[in-house]
Design a protein that fits this description.
Layout: H1 3-22, E1 26-31, E2 36-38, E3 43-50, E4 54-58, E5 64-65, E6 69-72, E7 78-88, E8 91-102, E9 106-107, E10 113-114, E11 128-133, E12 136-141
Parallel strand pairs: 2-8
Antiparallel strand pairs: 1-3, 3-6, 4-5, 4-7, 7-8, 9-10, 11-12
Length: about 140
């Protein structure tokens, strides 16, 4: 894990640990359906927190939002550290989570993702659509 992520996590632990003493938002949570997603596939980022009056999402790709719930897609492959800051008149609390974005993936066991196009008998697929149904991600088109 990169040193900046370790330092951020240590700082987040300190912030969350002191939140209730000062009156900052408590029970801050980001509801994200999965930590791995496909390139250009929109997914919902939902925020909850007790006592929050405003929100700030930093998606780690140079984009951000002040909405509580955001529909977001990533336009480049990579590992992104997404942070959510919940704020009220007493202060703020920040939490974070890593999201892995891949262009073309194959899910064999429902847990680990493996790039399959290098050994496939066809080229990588583009311009596809994906949907989550019945606990599985379905990729169509392209």
């Amino acid at each position: 894990m990169d040193l900046k992520y370790i330092l951020l996590i240590m700082g987040l632990v300190l912030l969350v640990g002191t939140a209730s003493a000062e009156g900052e938002p408590t029970n801050v949570n980001m509801d994200i359906p999965y930590n791995k997603t496909l390139l250009n596939a929109p997914m919902w980022f939902n925020a909850t927190a007790d006592g929050a009056t405003s929100w700030f999402w930093d998606f780690g790709d140079g984009t951000n939002s002040t909405a509580q719930n955001v529909l977001k897609s990533f336009t480049a492959e990579g590992d992104y550290f997404v942070t959510l800051t919940a704020t009220n008149e007493f202060g703020d609390t920040t939490i974070g989570r890593e999201i892995i974005v891949m262009d073309n993936v194959f899910v064999s066991d429902g847990v680990g993702w493996t790039r399959a196009t290098a050994s496939a008998g066809w080229s990588a697929r583009r311009y596809h659509t994906s949907v989550v149904y019945d606990g599985k991600m379905w990729v169509m088109g392209g």
